[in-house]
Amino acid sequence: MSEENRKLWQELGINMEMHDQLIAALPGMFAGAFGKLKNRPEGMKYFNMVVGDIHGIRVHELAGKKKAGSKVVATFCVYVPEDLTWAAGAEQIGLCGGAHFTVPAGEEHLPANLCPLIKSSLGFKVARVCPYTQISDLIVGETTCDGKKKMFEILGTMQPTYTIVLPPAKDKASRELFVQKLKEYKDKLESLTGKKVTVEVLTEKSRILEEKKKALRRIENTRKNDPAPISGLDALLVNQVSFYDDPVRFAQMTNQLADELEQRVKKGDGVYPKGTPRLIVSGTPQAIPFWKIPEIVEKTGGVVVAEESCVGTRYTSTKAGQTGQNLDQLLAGIADRLLETHCACFTPNSERADDIVRLFKEYKANGVILSNLQFCGPYTVESKLIENRLRKEKIPFLRLDVDYSAEDAGQLKTRVQAFLEVLR
Questions:
Q1: Domains in the chain, ordered, with CATH?
Q2: Of 25-34, 177-186, 255-264, minimum mean pLDDT range
Q3: Which residues contact 124 (CB under 8 A, 6 or more apart)?
Q4: What is this structure's pTM?
Q5: What is the Cβ-side half-sphere exposure of residue 136, based on CA atoms within 13 angstroms?
Q6: In the structure, what pLDDT confidence band is assigned to residue 424 with cuts at 50, 70 and 90?
Q7: Secondary structure of 99-123 in the HEC alphabet?
């Protein structure tokens, strides 16, 4: 742990005692999940390095950009458009809400019977252990569930917070409402940075975003092969890093990894033997350091080949690179792109079931794991509709209601083992 890091953390108002506990625990958590993986791609060394200094390298970069006049916008969701944030002269960083460590701090302000992602997210601010939260000039939330909406109100009493209102449906009137909300977000960004969003800059930032997504799609396409050239754990890690790394550098390093994986496919080289049961994981987001599901699957004899999640195919499936003659056209294009991303916050949300069935076929999967965070109302309720569709399609599935703690790991392992035996 460098003195430069400690000095920066202190300047950001980090609770050093609690932060030291968190930083001390992370290497063990990472080694526990990734340490025994065999035949890992060489390209994963970059992503290991990023996570190994998760509160160092990128935080220093952001601090340098702030000194040069930029602002930092922190977000929790894919419905906050990165290209629009960048076009206004700000950096966008994804905040983690995937650690049990900060749940108790979140429960100081939130009920215990609430989604752990919401409690963990607020807990990072309450405990002051996240330098990305501390360095941000504005936190941008969104109305993807009632719990998050109210949490953002609480967060707003602690740090400048802005909430983008999403429509409840995807009809014409809802689209018009969302376009207006994106215009309001543009105005908020311009007020924050003192810079105007222009057609030229927004077009270029949309192109950069599409290059990042294209690199991730290359990784996804290699996973359609048997044997899988990369583990589900490593693929998830790449997706997680995409939300806070520099976008241009991330695309470059991800393309290098994709080059390696494509060569592995040509050689028939996989991380697990050909014929290993192949699973799609679908459900709530999997934020760093929540690696529980793929870790259990791959330690019990299966391999995760795709994530139907915001940290997965929902993010990459929509194409950026919007073009237009004026800002109104560009913002309408961004709205259309984001509304193509399905989420349980919308009604109806039949696209998700369609996507799971499509992914099951494209990735030559053997089964689906429906992973829902405990007390996540939208996804837990929607699970019944998804289960009915999977039964109709005769697709084997296992539903897991999970938490961020390690207490349920043994029970989950037993259930996953039994599911894999059925698939075999």
A1: 3-168 (3.40.50.11890), 203-318+344-423 (3.40.50.11900)
A2: 25-34
A3: 95, 96, 97, 99, 102, 105, 130, 133
A4: 0.96
A5: 28
A6: confident
A7: CHHHHHHHCCCCCCCCCHHHHHHHH
